[in-house]
Specification:
single chain, alpha/beta, Rossmann fold, 7-stranded parallel beta sheet, 19 helices, 14 strands, 47% helix
Length: 427
Amino acid sequence: MRIVYTFMWWLALPLVLGRLWWRGRKEPGYREHWGERLGFYGPRAANDEPMTIWVHAVSVGETRAAEPLVDALLKQYPQARIVLTCMTPTGRATGKSLFGKHGARVVQSFLPYDLPLLVARFIRHFEPRICLLMETEVWPNLILQCNRDQVPVVLANARLSERSLGKALRLGKVIRDAAQGIALVAAQTEADALRIRELGAPRVEVTGSIKFDVVIPPAAMAAGAVLRRQIGARPVFLCASTREGEEGMILEAFRSARAELPRDVLLLIVPRHPQRFDEVAAMVADSGLSLQRRSALSEAGASVAPSTEVLLGDSMGEMFAYYSACDLAFIGGSLQPLGGQNLIEPAALGKPVIVGEHTFNFAQATEDCLHQGGAVRIHNSDGLMHQAAILLADSQSRSAMGAHAQTFANTHRGATERTLALLPDLK
């Protein structure tokens, strides 16, 4: 089965590269650093290079989740460097934003495609002492090659939904062999651990979610304060990390609910994927709602006009600033069956949270926040606007929800420390 899997990868490689080139029309980053994806890295590192710890975070969410772990590893191993791999240009840009402060101690690269030859080149070049895969990244040939080269593989901050488990089980022996090659799984919840054990992983420990350990950057809070001054005293309803198909529903519901919502409410929409910024701006214009863009606002140093109904958050690396500037946050990816996004960040800032029906990617965290009164669940876009209207009109309820959300976030901290304690000694 592994031979078939590898053969299929070789057959698909020209199509994969063609898709990269196609995606590069809108995101030029997909046309850069192709050599890294194919296992070419230039001259080999010198023998006196520091000890290397390999952390793989597929895209933006995983890279942001890895921040507490990367910072803790650099502190615990002051002579080490981190090689941070990802799959997307936005993930790479996020890594640069988060870890540029560490200088040469954090090196970034795209992950080589899951072919033995390419992964072997990566390992020969960087010589990692350990491989830490974030959340759900299980690549069969990567794990096999690490096992051959005696590089321990750890699946950190691991999560696995029922849907993902079903998909994994359909892949049969390939995934089971990969799971058995993982030396340690640090799972977010007991439910995640049970599902991962079903795949055959030999050692699974429950450590909690590292995302609770995220440190809110002072610069982000300062940016949020500036944005709030530019907006003024009007209520701000943030729809964060929205996905394709959701913005149209939100805009239509927002227009329909104008009589119910506060008259001067500002709808702040932040699409999850930056390549969709222009698309969403066009949708707002087509809806007849007045629009300003965060990028233009920053460049001009201007304020949000009182007549502006929608502010488009078309900037990278400012999610904390957007959360800081809002009064109420809806977490996208949950109106459609996409699994939802991370609600820990707004909760950590003491913001009341609204989620949709589809939160299976963050099921336990969402249920815990709902149970503690820091979040409320709605079932459609009309319900979203109705709930927003209720909360925006009741500052006491918002304040109480925000306090419950912050308590929820604070009581779940410590996963980074628990994960580090389980790692093998690195020398």
